[in-house]
Amino acid sequence: MSSLRRIASAAAAVTIAASGLVLGAPAASALENGLLRTPPMGFNNWNSTQCRAEFTEAMIKDIADIFVGKGLKDAGYTYVNIDDCWALPSRNPAGDLVPDPARFPNGIKALAAYVHAKGLKFGIYTSAGTKTCNKAGFPGALGHEQQDANLFASWGVDYLKYDNCNNQGVDAQQRYKAMRDALAKSGRPIAYSLCEWGQNQPWTWAAPVGNLWRTTGDISDKWSSMIGKAQTNRGLAQYAGPGHWNDPDMLEVGNGGMTATEYRTHFSLWAMMAAPLLIGSDLRKVSDDDFAILKNTDVIALDQDPLGKQATVLSANAGLVVYSKVLANGDRAVALSNETAATATIGTTASATGIGSASSYTLKDLWSKAIRTTAGTISASVPSHATVLYRVSRAGGATRYEAESATLSAGGTIDANHAGFSGTGFANGANAVGSYVEWQVTGPASSLAFGYANGTTAARPVDISVDGTVVAAGVPFPGTGAWTTWNTVTKGLALPAGQHTIRLTATTADGPANLDYLDVSP
Questions:
Q1: Average confidence (pLDDT) over 178-207
Q2: Going along 306-343, which residue ranges are E strands?
Q3: Catalytic residue among 100, 218, 365, 463
Q4: Helix extents (H) in 26-162
Q5: How crowded is the C-beta side of 60, counted as CA atoms within 13 Å?
Q6: Catalytic annotation present for 163
Q7: Can you list the alpha helix ranges (DSSP code H) found in 18-103?
């Protein structure tokens, strides 16, 4: 570890005196409203209707009915959200927003109650400005934050999309924090979506403000728009996590502007990026094939994985992109995505994903459902604009011990400031000879595999000891090219049955590499 890295992580450290373990806190605390521990799933009408006449109470009720009748609720879709144009152009004499009686004759409270009766949640829209984005000029919430938050709470709103139009040049953080505070005082838990379009890099400041934030401008129903949003969003993995998500905008699946292949890529990449899965098509009109995409539970499981890791890019070469996503059970999801106009072979290795060593790996294709094994190569011939999506599991029954369960010598921390690790963090040992990381494990075992990252060019050797006896001296942990690139070092070892202490002790002043986990294979 470099001294710069040590200083940065130490600033966020919290010491647990009882155990001697030092746990690293993230640089910016997430919004602690207890909501959206996985990315939101649901519906928003904007992409299919915008402000046209078909946007009505009857349509939204139909969507709620379809969520239940077509199995979308069972697949995890929860929120039924309405967008701009639901209100009259003027507030009432009390200053309250008024639902358009032509579109919503029974009002928003009754509509929310209908959605709730289906076991679903209801979302609404306004803007962090004097007016919303539609040219008709519906009133926004700037200067009315608490009044509007209280009104939404009284109606039973569960989710607020807060746009960025007509903001009068007021600082973005000031505007979005004002509504955060108003929602917190409203007396109702309301998930908070910042639709700031990425203009002020919200990923750098919005985690304590909202549950999700737009990283891009508006999506449209064409390949170039969709893939452009993915390209912008995919480099921001370090900012996403439970309760605070990068949002590359809503889904276009079923709106007709892309092919089925392109829509599968759209859905795959949004799931890999832990993005919100908000259906943007009129579900009364979509095809069975579109429903099959939207209800692919294997793909949804990647998006909703409780670890909450956004995929990182392992490689991107002339439009051939490999993504890897760490999953809560130690598996990896791998997407081989072809952005080009011609079929191409795209590949990586199990080792490159940091999954750890195994005698073989199981690959499940999450679209075809085919299952095969590999010694380590992950490769496929991928058609133009297609994405092959695998769930990768280790064979051989290895037991994983995360770095979070390890004991570190003085000055070591458990950090989370570099993406791509397994579990919830990695061990960042002190920069000193004798710095160690130690696990308590259960034998028998035939080999140990250590997941690690070393962003320097110099190897970081350690002595490996079992129960206080060095069994392998000066084992090198070579450079991996970046602190976000994870690899493994494996040592064959006959470990008898029972409890054992495995310790890695640094032999140079640089300390050990960042250590992610220890896999113990029988």
A1: 98
A2: 312-317, 320-326, 332-338
A3: 218
A4: 46-49, 57-69, 72-75, 107-117, 145-155
A5: 31
A6: yes
A7: 46-49, 57-69, 72-75
